[in-house]
Amino acid sequence: MELARILLVEDDAGDVAYTLDEFREHRLRNPLTVLGDGIAAIEYLERRGAYPDAPTPDILLLDLNLPGVDGRVVLDRVLGNPRLQHMTVVVLTGSPSEEQLLRDFGVPAEYYFRKPVDFAQLAALIRGVDQFSIVVDKVKAR
Which domain holds residue 36? Predict the structure, then answer.
């Protein structure tokens, strides 16, 4: 079974720490890459700049409010790139107005989450996407 590769694009150190803690607490073994701004996210996804050999993630966890290039621009680039259209995009939002924007973009409600993200909901979403797998390490943490 191939593990889903996850890219988290989040600039808030507290939100990143929370997400990493949740992944550790639930003993997720999926490869996780963390980037802190929209410019790095676009370069990573388009395999440019410092990321010419970056693997295409299966799941993108994307904050909308990013420095450099806004998450909306990243989302637009992803939606317009045929190579990335298989990727599941989960948008991390902090407000009802952002949720309306996502509806306007055509993002289904089950693919955006209010921060902080409820890990159980996120895991259920990932498991529900047939081509992806998340693996929780059943070995007790030492």
Answer: 6-128
Cα-trace Rg, the chain = 15
Other CB atoms within a 10 A radius of the CB of residue 123 amount to 16
Q: Give the separation between CA 62 and CA 65, rounded to whole angstroms.
A: 9
Q: Are 35 and 44 in contact (CB under 8 A)?
A: yes
50-82 residue pLDDT tens: 999 999 998 898 888 898 898 889 988 988 899
pLDDT at 127 (0 to 100): 60
Whether 121 shows a pLDDT value over 90: the answer reads no
Cβ–Cβ contacts within 10 Å for residue 30, how many?
17
Provide the Cα torsion 88, 25, 63, 9; round to 10°. Answer: -80
CATH of the domain at 115: 3.40.50.2300
Mean pLDDT of 100-123: 64
**What single DSSP character describes residue 4?**
P
**Rounded Cα–Cα distance for residues 27 and 136 (Å):** 5
Q: Is residue 36 in a domain?
A: yes
